[in-house]
Structure formats: structure tokens, C-alpha cells
TrEMBL record:
This is Fatty acyl-AMP ligase. Pfam families: AMP-binding, AMP-dom_DIP2-like. Residues 27-428 form the AMP-dependent synthetase/ligase domain. Residues 481-592 form the AMP-binding enzyme C-terminal domain. The keyword DNA damage does not apply. InterPro entries: AMP-bd_C, AMP-bd_C_sf, AMP-dep_synth/lig_dom, ANL_N_sf, FAAL/FAAC. Belongs to the ATP-dependent AMP-binding enzyme family. It comes from Amycolatopsis minnesotensis. Keywords: Fatty acid metabolism, Ligase, Lipid metabolism. GO terms for molecular function: ligase activity.
């Protein structure tokens, strides 16, 4: 049975939670109060990076102050949107909302980045917050944004000017495992963002799974992260797992990384003990390409135990480039951990084993598209090399036929279904969709029920395609993104990789392949961004299109209806930077892309 938002807000019958993020914070404040809990390296005020930090006790006191204010101005279960810039204030705001028994909505402050304002309006309209939390410097901008978009929010709080409590003049509510902790809005790669309902039990389960999987250890580990804290991976890697494990986090702003990616590795180099970090696959190629040889002299990466890699397909050549570029700094392929996950499961579902590079396997491209994993040598003409996402972490995983809801044997491609204590309870105010996605029933080939994880109402349909070979999970794509032309399946990421290699004028990690209706059925289209090093006036669009068509035809047997070259940054992307193929398809069909040539 689907749990409604109202039932989520009722905690009278929920079972007791042994520990939540707020209570874990309070425990560490009592045990190691004078040790550093969180730091933020601010490159907006200093080229060298100005560091602001809090001890466990200081952070706990700040969270108390936020919680007390929230409790006075809202009712239990009300939503509180966190529109705070990346900083230690973000951490205090998010945890303060949770401690008050409210439902946090992690977002970001209004900014001019493409698509961010539209997404922010969509999310705020959907969750209808009672409170909005920000900082003093951004309060006017936030209030102006809300007024401009005709949104009425009763209370606005600048968390960085709240006075600390002189004494404990509030009583934190009892939190139960089934109580709703926050709404994690999906990145919207195939649709408008939906708020995944994450309970206190869900986030603690996945945070602990992450600590174990990434080899976190109290008194030894430090997390370094530039990932946005409003995003699922950034929130769990940068806030939840460090608090669950009792070790510190050093945070950066995503813009600081994008402007000078070497900063990421420089901060990692300053960490004592074992360092843990994570990023999307593109970041590894990006930092390798943008780091100068002289800058490598000061980098020390031999103490990194985990380079987590998730949120998009892992490209083998990107890993080779990264570890070759930083080998003399101590980076080794054994540190790499390919992670598969999604917001509906808090973030992590599976991860490759520690101590060895993620397994690579070549599969026959045609057979894979037809739903069968046929192993071939890597580099063979028809080979598609995939990187293993390892095994499930503290949860159950099956490959299912999405049409019949039956388990498929190893070696067959199907939808990835998961079940575990970390899986959310549904989408905010989308009961029918929640039941379909979060409470699916699964059967074996004889029609017998395949039981989900104990205590779970069913299986989570991830919408992702994968295959299990030799005990390892390999991700092959998303169901909705499949290109089906003349009855043949083509994985868009395979086509996009071919496109990127077809001509030097194509920007890396900036191509979208999709299908559109044609007179005689679906037809394939590619939209790609111009490489920045190629001036627009020197671009020969016909030459680029011909090279792309030839490469895609030769490697995939696929004729392209159109090849469109657009300006850098013009492709539609999600909040986490992934190419939004559905958005690109919509813009192509309505003719809103600006072309070159």
C-alpha cells in the first residue's frame, strides 16, 4: 500500500529509530566535541581558498539554534526549503530542519545558471514550503525571487545570524525511522523533477552503507567533496556519510571546481590520513585535461582510499587518462570505485570492490542491444566495453523484464530492480506513480513471488537497464533513452561516444543522441556542442556532419537523420550536469536550438 504524505508526517505508530543524522551529530559532539566536523574552502573571497570550519560541538550548537527557530515557526512535518549557498551554513541549515522534525527540501539559492530558476520554481511550487532558509547576504535575492514568481512564503530565515541558545529552551521531537526527513528532488533527466520521500531510516541506512563501501573510518578518514549539497550524491557524500561515520568533511563549491579543477586535488593533498572523494565520471577527465604539469609537483594522492565515480556512465578511456596523468602523484586505478545509484534509493545501490580497479568487460554491441551479453575481446570491432558497478551494498538487486515483471537470468539485459532499507517510500503527492515505481511485485520464471528486502513493500523499478555477468552489475542505459530504429536497439551513450571521437571539433562529453518520429518510423538525431578550441568562424559544419555520419554508420549501422552542431553550453542538462536527452529532443523538435554554419 502506498504511504501518503500525510501518513509520512504521522509518527505515532512508526518504529523507533536507533539513530538519526541529528542524534548521530549530538553523539559525536559529546564524544569528540573539539575535533573538526566540517570545513568549507571558499575561493570566492580568496584565490588561495579561505577556510571556515566547525567542530562537532560548534556544529551541534548551530543545528540546535536552527532547530529551535524552525520548531517555533512551523508545525511538525511542514516543509522547509534550504536555499543556502554551498558552505558550512548549508550543513547546519539542513540538519537543523531535520532536528526540528520538519521535512527538509535541499535546493540552492537563486542564480542565473541556465535552467536553475525554472527548476527552483517547479520544486518550490510542488513542495509548498512553510519556511525558506537562506543566509543574510542572499536574503534579499531570495525574497525578490519569491516575489517575482508570486510565491508566498510565511517565514524566511537567515541561518548565519541566528544567535546560539543560551540554554536548551526547546525540546527536540522524537524521530522515528518511518518519519519523513527530506524530499530529494530528482535531477529530471527524463522528466520534470519529482520529490523522492526519504525517511530518517532511509538516509541513515544508505549513509552507513556508504561508510562501509567507501572504507570510511572514524579517527582516520576525511571526505573531500565539491559536489552540490542539494544533489543526492553531494548530500550523502558531503553530509550524511561523514556524520554517520563520525569523521570530518572538507567541502568546496562546484563553481570553484569547474573554474579551476586542480583545486579538488589540491585540497585532497592537504588531508591527513585516509581521503575519500567522489565525482561524476566527466570530472576525472576534466581535471586531467586542465591540470598543468608544474601543478602536479605539489599533489599528493597516495593516501586516497576511494575515488568514487557515479551519476553517469563510466568511460574506460576517462579512467585511463586520469590515472596516467596523476600516476606520479600517487593515484592508482585500485582506488577507483564505480558506484551505481539513484535518488529513489537515497543514492547508492551497488559499488565495485575495494582494492582493485573496477572490472572491465567487452560485449558484442549488436547482441547487447538485442538483450544478451555476449563477451568479446575489448577493442574488437563490434565491442562495447563496460565498467562494472560491482555488487549491491546492503540491499537486494535483480534484473527484471519490465513488461512481465519476471526475473531474468544472468547474461540477459533488463531493468535493474532494487530493494533495501535505503529505498525511499515514494514520490511526494504522486501516489499512483509511487505504487508503480516503489512497490513493484517480482516473480521468477515459474510464477513464484521473489521476496523483496525484509520490511519493504515491494521492489524499486529504477528505469535503468543493466546486466549481471560473473556476479557483477553492468549498466547499459536508461529505458526511456533507448534509440529504436528499424526494430534495432541502440544505446545512446554508445552512439555519443562514437560522435565525440569522430571529429576534433566535437566537444567531449557534450553530445546527445536520440530518436524523433519520421515519415516511416523513428529516426536518429545527434546534437553536439562545438569544442571551445575550435573558433565558430573556422568550423566546417558539413565536414563535421559527414565525419559523424560516417563514424556512426560504420560502428553502429545507424543512419542519422540529422547532425546538429550547437554552441558550447547549449545542450539541455540536469542539475547535476548530465545531458538531458529528453530536453534536447524537445528543443530539436520545436526548433529552439541555435545552429552554426
Amino acid at each position: 500500500m502506498t504511504t501518503t504524505p500525510e501518513q509520512q508526517r504521522s509518527h505515532g505508530s512508526a518504529h523507533t529509530l536507533d539513530e538519526s543524522l541529528p542524534s548521530a551529530l549530538a553523539r559525536w559532539a559529546a564524544l569528540q566535541g573539539d575535533e573538526r566536523a566540517v570545513a568549507f574552502v571558499d575561493y570566492r573571497t580568496s584565490q588561495a581558498g579561505a577556510i571556515t570550519s566547525m567542530t562537532w560541538r560548534e556544529l551541534n550548537d548551530r543545528v540546535d539554534a536552527v532547530a529551535a527557530w524552525c520548531q517555533r515557526h512551523a508545525n511538525r512535518g511542514d516543509r522547509a526549503a534550504v536555499l543556502v549557498p554551498q558552505s558550512v551554513d548549508y550543513v547546519a541549515a539542513f540538519l537543523g530542519v531535520l532536528r526540528a522534525g520538519l521535512v527538509a527540501v535541499p535546493m540552492y539559492e537563486p542564480n542565473p545558471l541556465p535552467g536553475h530558476a525554472e527548476r527552483l520554481v517547479t520544486v518550490l511550487t510542488d513542495c509548498a514550503p512553510t519556511l525558506v532558509l537562506t543566509t543574510r547576504d542572499h536574503a534579499d535575492a531570495v525574497e525578490g525571487f519569491l516575489t517575482e514568481h508570486e510565491m508566498s512564503v510565511p517565514r524566511l530565515l537567515a541561518v548565519d545570524v541566528l544567535p546560539l541558545l543560551s540554554e536548551k529552551d526547546y525540546e527536540p521531537p522524537r524521530l522515528a525511522a518511518d518519519d519523513l526527513a527530506y524530499l530529494q528532488y530528482t535531477s529530471g533527466s527524463t522528466r520534470n523533477p519529482a520529490g523522492v520521500m526519504i525517511t530518517h531510516g532511509n538516509v541513515m541506512a544508505n549513509a552507513r552503507q556508504g561508510v562501509e563501501a567507501y572504507q570510511g573510518e572514524r579517527g582516520r578518514s576525511t571526505v573531500v567533496s565539491w559536489l552540490p549539497l542539494f544533489h543526492d550524491m553531494g548530500l550523502v557524500v558531503g553530509i550524511a556519510s561523514p556524520i554517520a561515520g563520525g569523521f570530518p568533511a572538507v567541502l568546496m563549491d562546484p563553481i570553484a571546481f569547474l573554474a579551476q579543477p586542480t583545486r579538488w586535488l589540491q585540497v585532497l593533498s592537504t588531508v591527513d590520513g585516509a581521503a575519500i572523494t567522489a565525482a561524476p565520471n566527466f570530472a576525472y577527465g576534466y581535471v586531467a585535461a586542465r591540470t598543468k604539469e608544474q601543478d602536479k609537483e605539489s599533489l599528493r594522492l597516495d593516501h586516497v582510499v576511494t575515488f568514487g565515480d557515479g551519476s553517469e556512465p563510466v568511460v574506460p578511456s576517462t579512467l585511463d587518462t586520469f590515472y596516467s596523468a596523476f600516476a606520479r602523484c600517487g593515484a592508482e586505478p585500485r582506488m577507483h570505485r564505480h558506484t551505481y545509484g539513484l535518488a529513489e534509493a537515497v543514492v547508492m545501490v551497488s559499488v565495485s570492490p575495494a582494492g582493485a580497479p573496477p572490472r572491465r568487460q567487452g560485449f558484442d554491441r549488436v547482441s547487447l542491444a538485442a538483450g544478451r551479453a555476449v563477451e568479446v575481446a575489448q577493442g574488437a570491432e563490434s565491442s562495447s566495453t563496460l565498467v562494472s558497478a560491482g555488487q549491491p551494498v546492503g540491499q537486494r538487486l535483480r534484473i527484471a523484464d519490465p513488461r512481465t515483471a519476471t526475473v531474468l537470468p544472468d547474461g540477459r539485459v533488463g531493468e535493474i530492480w532494487s530493494s533495501g532499507p535505503n529505498v525511499g517510500t515514494g514520490y511526494w503527492r504522486r501516489e499512483e506513480e509511487s505504487a508503480h515505481v516503489f512497490e513493484a511485485r517480482l516473480s521468477d520464471e515459474d510464477g513464484r513471488a521473489v521476496e523483496p528486502h525484509p520490511g519493504r513493500p515491494g521492489w524499486l523499478r529504477t528505469g535503468d537497464l543493466g546486466v549481471v555477468v560473473g556476479g557483477d552489475l553492468f549498466i547499459t542505459g536508461r529505458i526511456k533513452d533507448l534509440i529504436i530504429v528499424d526494430g534495432r536497439n541502440h544505446y545512446p551513450q554508445d552512439v555519443e561516444h562514437t560522435v565525440e571521437q569522430a571529429h576534433p571539433a566535437i566537444r567531449r562529453h557534450a553530445a546527445a543522441a536520440f530518436s524523433v518520429p519520421g515519415e516511416h518510423g523513428e529516426q536518429a538525431v545527434v546534437v553536439a556542442e562545438r569544442a571551445r578550441q575550435v573558433p565558430s568562424e573556422e568550423l566546417d559544419r558539413a565536414e563535421v556532419a559527414a565525419a559523424v555520419r560516417a563514424a556512426v554508420s560504420a560502428h553502429h549501422g545507424l543512419a542519422l537523420r540529422d547532425v546538429l552542431v550547437v554552441e558550447p553550453g547549449e545542450l539541455s542538462r540536469t542539475s547535476s550536469g548530465k545531458i538531458r536527452r529528453s530536453g534536447c529532443r524537445t528543443r530539436y523538435v520545436d526548433g529552439s536550438f541555435g545552429t552554426l554554419g
